[in-house]
Amino acid sequence: TLKKIKKQQQDVKGFLAANKIEFEECDIAADEDNRKWMREHVPEDSRPATGNPLPPQIFNEDRYCGNYEAFFCAREDNAVYAFLGLTAPPGSKEAEALSKKTQM
């Protein structure tokens, strides 16, 4: 539903803004080119069985990161920077978790 999509979009944008991760929001409702680009760049194995992929779909430039569910799981696991293909900043929960893994 539209309400659910809007909430998920706000959730992603709020997290990115709170963590000072730069992002560009692309409106697919008002811009046919954005809609077409998103649909072409979501990999086959990440598409729904029927219909088109629904927003939010998350990309780092042209690299597909995942949908809201994948973002949510990465956030729960303190792995959003890895999910986005970014280096976790020093002092972040993710950087601390990574340094603990490499020390083992």
UniProtKB/TrEMBL annotation:
Q: Name one GO cellular component term.
A: plasma membrane
Keyword annotations of the record? Cell membrane, Cytoplasm, Membrane, SH3-binding
Which InterPro entries does the entry link to?
A: Glut_rich_SH3-bd, SH3BGR, Thioredoxin-like_sf
Output one GO MF annotation. SH3 domain binding
**Record's CDD domains?**
GRX_SH3BGR (cd03030)
Compartmental location = Cell membrane; Cytoplasm, Cytosol
Described function: Appears to function as an adapter protein that bridges proteins together or proteins with mRNAs. May function as a ubiquitin ligase-substrate adapter. Additionally, associates with translating cytoplasmic ribosomes and may promote the expression of specific mRNAs.
Q: How does it assemble?
A: Monomer. Interacts with PFN1/Profilin-1. Interacts with ERBB2. Interacts with ATG12. Interacts with BECN1. Interacts with translating ribosomes.
Spell out the family assignment given in the record's similarity comment: Belongs to the SH3BGR family.
Q: What is this protein called?
A: SH3 domain-binding glutamic acid-rich-like protein
